[in-house]
Design goal:
The complex is a heterodimer of chains A (about 325) and B (about 240). Chain A has about 325 residues and is mainly α. Helices cover about 80% and strands about 0% of the residues of chain A. The radius of gyration of chain A is 20 Å and the shape is globular. The two termini of chain A are about 35 Å apart. In chain B, the strands form two sheets. A six-stranded mixed β-sheet of chain B has the order 6-7-8-3-9-10, sandwiched between helices. Chain B has two domains: about 160 residues, P-loop containing nucleotide triphosphate hydrolases (Rossmann fold, 3-Layer(aba) Sandwich); about 70 residues, no CATH class. Classes of the chains: A mainly alpha (about 325), B alpha/beta (about 240). Bound molecules: adenosine-5'-diphosphate and magnesium ion.
Chain lengths: ~325, ~240
């Protein structure tokens, strides 16, 4: 019993390191087989994984459904458009993250007093607001829509994304284990009670929201360098708000693995469906989502968990169980 | 020595004054009972003192410092904590995690995880919940959930504890246990204000009772005095 329990502890870290090694080696093999598409696909997968996991960092435990992901990702993209030529790549990417962090402090400060559907709607509106204000500025003041972005080789983008993801996983893990992780769950469980036992709910919510947005901004800044040209309609596309939310629900939010699995499977499916069934892909997608919400309330991870529990026959604590608001 | 001093406290909901100009003093070390018919404004008074709502008028002083206008988390860290009438544990967390949160965030001084965990164990022992330490709080009986909420409040190291109908819905045995627990908490030097409908509890453990009716204090005194007060009898029988 003891030995078995001990070794279970290492399963996930070992798998994670193996996957990481394979990913680090990927560009080498992709180059040899002359398949540029592979790297492009993995870039997209990594990008959505970062967006989904950083979304889940805040929205998972607190239950606040943010639909502002596109705003923070878009600010990252635009940072690259503005600063891409004047700053070295790492500094420029960092600036994208910081810009999103600051924007999130503002949006969070304004909207995080709202609950439930109101918060979702206001965060969604913030994307539209930024998009149209920026568009108006470009047309009437700056004189000209959109801007070119400096290009960086796909392999570099891939490695930077991988680095961001590793940093994000470590951050999520440390946060979850810390007292602030516990406090975030208490906010999702009963915010009023949390406040009354000393949790500074306002500061904690705004800071965590900004931290999650920081990673979204980083991802945006590096992804822009593969796009040649961006404008506000490309950058602030609402799909960047919807997909990460759906992917997190699809994978399950009880732990760190859920959103990652959700994003990887979902993005891959999406790419296949778009190429194979360009006309009905949204329909298939919607169906899968509805089925997930009805039959897998805890996502793919919840499914894996209950299968494992059935096979082992053990009755483990239902770790993925959570009540919504 | 006064631990809490309330002056002209008023709170409106729409046109209705749920609390209308309440003046109140709580002495260090006492158990003060707060009674009154449903809708009298008792819970609202707690909501104002604990910072859930800001008052429309009036001031609140805790241990000499003005706390009206402060956030609940700041008031808690000053040493004033309340429990809720409708029990609000964190249902999907374990009992231990519930109480640990109070120890980690509620006390005035910052603690390491280790210190907080040790205190949590002590408090769970004190309230008699040790065997449920790893149980999900939401799966406990109402009586035990109320104990979890009490333990979580105690973990914040309060000097003044506000208990809102802690004994409502408990059976006679559980009420007896809860009374015992409240007395023990007072012996630790914690001042208590309790809203209660269970008269047996109020009459037996309170040093002093205040009667609230339509947002105003209509009587005040020892249990013996209050239970023979004409106005009080009228209000209770009249409703
Ligand atoms: N959040 C609120 N919004 C509107 N009215 C409220 C609110 N809270 C309490 N009230 C009203 O204030 C009055 C006092 O309520 P309450 O303090 O809960 O009474 P008690 O705890 O003495 O039963 C009641 O008439 C109640 O309907
Ligand atoms: Mg009440």
């Amino acid at each position: 019993m003891k030995i078995k329990a001990n070794y279970k502890k290492y399963v996930i870290p070992v798998i994670a390191i193996l996957v990481l090694v394979l990913l680090i080696a990927l560009p080498y093999f992709a180059e040899r087989s002359d398949s540029r598409y592979t790297i492009v696909l993995f870039k997209t997968i990594l990008m959505f994984t970062i967006l989904t996991l950083s979304w889940a960092l805040f929205s998972g435990p607190t239950g606040y459904t943010s639909l502002a992901t596109a705003a923070f990702y878009g600010v990252g993209l635009y940072t690259a458009g503005v600063l891409g030529r004047v700053l070295p790549l790492p500094v420029m990417v960092l600036c994208g993250g910081l810009a999103s962090f600051l924007l999130a402090v503002i949006i969070g400060g304004i909207t995080l007093r709202l609950r439930g559907i109101y918060f979702a709607i206001f965060t969604l509106s913030s994307v539209e607001l930024i998009k149209h204000v920026l568009h108006w500025y470009e047309i009437t003041i700056a004189g000209g829509r959109g801007r070119p972005v400096v290009r960086v080789p796909d392999t570099t983008v891939f490695y930077v994304l991988l680095g961001i993801l590793v940093l994000l996983i470590i951050t999520s893990y440390l946060l979850k284990r810390s007292k602030y992780g516990l406090a975030l769950s208490s906010i999702g469980s009963c915010e009023e009670a949390a406040a009354h036992i000393g949790v500074n709910v306002v500061t904690l919510k705004v800071f965590t929201f900004a931290l999650s947005s920081f990673f979204m901004g980083l991802a945006g800044a590096i992804m822009a360098t593969g796009m040649v040209y961006i404008d506000c309609f490309i950058a602030f596309d609402l799909n960047y708000s919807f997909f990460p939310t759906l992917m997190a629900i699809f994978g399950g939010m009880g732990n760190i693995v859920g959103p990652i699995i959700g994003a990887v499977v979902f993005t891959y499916l999406r790419e296949i469906l778009i190429t194979e069934f360009p006309y009905v892909y949204m329909f298939i997608f919607g169906t899968v989502m509805i089925l997930t919400i009805i039959y897998l309330p805890n996502g793919l991870i919840g499914l894996a968990e209950s299968i494992r529990r059935k096979l082992l026959g053990g009755k483990h604590a239902d770790t993925t169980c959570r009540r919504v608001n | 020595m006064q631990i809490l001093h309330v002056e002209g406290l008023t709170k409106y909901f729409g046109g209705l004054a749920a609390v209308a100009g309440v003046d109140l003093q709580v002495e260090k070390g006492e158990i003060l009972g707060l009674i009154g018919p449903n809708g009298a404004g008792k819970t609202t008074l707690f909501n104002l003192i604990s910072g859930t709502y800001a008052p429309n008028a009036g001031k609140i002083f805790f241990d000499g410092t003005k706390i009206s206008g402060m956030k609940p988390n700041a008031i808690c860290r000053k040493g004033l904590v309340r429990t809720f009438q409708s029990c609000r544990v964190f249902p999907e967390m374990t009992v231990f995690q519930n109480v640990l949160l109070g120890a980690l965030f509620g006390a005035p001084e910052t603690k390491t995880w280790h210190q907080a965990a040790a205190e949590t164990k002590e408090i769970l022992d004190f309230v008699g919940l040790s065997e449920f330490s790893d149980t999900r709080a939401g799966s406990l009986t109402l009586a035990n959930q109320k104990r979890v909420e009490l333990a979580r409040a105690l973990a914040t190291k309060p000097r003044l504890l506000l208990l809102d109908e802690m004994m409502a819905g408990l059976n006679p045995t559980e009420v007896g246990e809860a009374m015992e627990l409240v007395t023990q908490i007072r012996e630790k030097g914690i001042t208590i204000v309790m809203i209660e409908h269970v008269m047996k509890a109020i009459m037996n453990i309170c040093n002093r009772i205040i009667v609230l009716h339509r947002g105003q204090i209509i009587a005040e005194g020892t249990p013996a005095e209050v239970s023979t007060d004409k106005t009080v009898i009228e209000v209770y029988l009249g409703e």
